[in-house]
Structure to design on (84 residues):
């Protein structure tokens, strides 16, 4: 295994460990927050869907994620799983 590969792998692990999908950021969420505030805190969502003024966005993956439901531009409710 080359030293370059080990360095790249270590860098990737550090990036994941420093992600924004964590308990600390989850605790900063609150009902009524604007969508722009949530995205400033968590970054760009992994996935979003919605219709008729309601939407749901998710950050993370199937093991560790934060999900936020919006009514218009405001947080209605949110949930998380596997956060550290």
């Amino acid at each position: 295994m080359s030293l370059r590969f080990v360095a790249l792998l270590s860098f990737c692990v550090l990036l994941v460990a420093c992600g924004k999908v964590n308990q600390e950021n989850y605790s900063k969420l609150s009902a009524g927050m604007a969508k722009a505030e949530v995205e400033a805190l968590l970054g760009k969502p992994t996935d979003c869907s919605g219709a008729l003024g309601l939407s749901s966005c998710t950050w993370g993956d199937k093991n560790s994620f934060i999900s936020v439901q919006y009514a218009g531009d405001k947080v209605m409710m949110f949930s998380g799983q596997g956060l550290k």
About this structure: The two ends are 31 Å apart (CA to CA). The chain has one domain: 20-81. The beta strands are 47-51, 54-60, 65-71, 74-81. The longest helix spans residues 3-17.
